[in-house]
């Protein structure tokens, strides 16, 4: 999935359901309200995160979006402890996403699974995160050639 010769590569697996969350290559969302962004930010030093937030801002996307730097940095601490990030209707109303970072590859990267909150219960998040962690470990091994 990752290519050592490219800065990034995205593989999107579409749901067969008509109601779904859809991402397209080239889509950009802020780091403060997406699981992918939070997972990546959790691997960066605090000064770099603060600089990104200062440059990009922290606009409210939904009623649950984190909009304070202090709360966001606290969320990153929690992500580092758990090893995964959650976007629980913070970027899209009715959207839920879990993501894990891909550490040690020299690129800011993460992988995720997103679904409508009605089909992705919060009690499923830890199991999905565990599967994503296993996939991330395999990707990092493949990418590094170990």
How would you characterize the overall build of this protein?
The chain has 146 residues and is α+β, with helices and mostly antiparallel strands. Helices cover 36% and strands 12% of the residues. The chain contains 4 helices and 3 strands; from the N terminus they run αααβββα. A hairpin with an 8-residue loop joins strand 2 (95-101) and strand 3 (110-116). It is globular and about 40 Å long.
How confident overall, as mean pLDDT? 85
Structural class: alpha+beta
| Overall 3D shape | globular
Give helix and strand order, one letter per element, not per position: HHHEEEH
> What's the number of helices?
4
Q: Could you give the distance between the termini? A: 16 Å
What can be said about the biggest beta sheet?
Answer: 3 strands, antiparallel
Low-confidence stretches: 1-10
Quickly describe the structure.
It is built from four helices and three strands. It is an alpha+beta fold. The chain has a three-stranded antiparallel β-sheet, sandwiched between helices.
Please name the defining characteristics of this protein.
single chain, 146 residues, alpha+beta, 4 helices, globular, disordered N terminus
Topology, element by element:
Blueprint: H1 35-41, H2 46-56, H3 69-82, E1 85-88, E2 95-101, E3 110-116, H4 125-144
Antiparallel strand pairs: 1-2, 2-3
């Amino acid at each position: 999935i990752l290519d050592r010769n490219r800065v990034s590569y995205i593989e999107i697996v579409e749901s067969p359901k008509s109601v779904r969350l859809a991402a397209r290559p080239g889509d950009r969302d802020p780091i403060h309200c997406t699981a992918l962004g939070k997972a990546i930010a959790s691997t960066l030093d605090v000064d770099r995160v603060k600089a990104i937030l200062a440059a990009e801002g922290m606009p409210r996307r939904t009623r649950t979006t984190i909009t304070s730097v202090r709360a966001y940095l606290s969320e990153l601490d929690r992500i580092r402890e758990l090893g995964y990030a959650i976007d629980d209707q913070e970027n899209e109303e009715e959207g839920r996403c879990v993501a894990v970072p891909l550490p040690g590859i020299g690129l800011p990267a993460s992988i995720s699974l997103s679904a409508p909150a009605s089909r992705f219960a919060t009690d499923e998040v830890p199991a999905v995160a565990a599967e994503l962690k296993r996939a991330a470990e395999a990707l990092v091994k493949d990418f590094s050639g170990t």
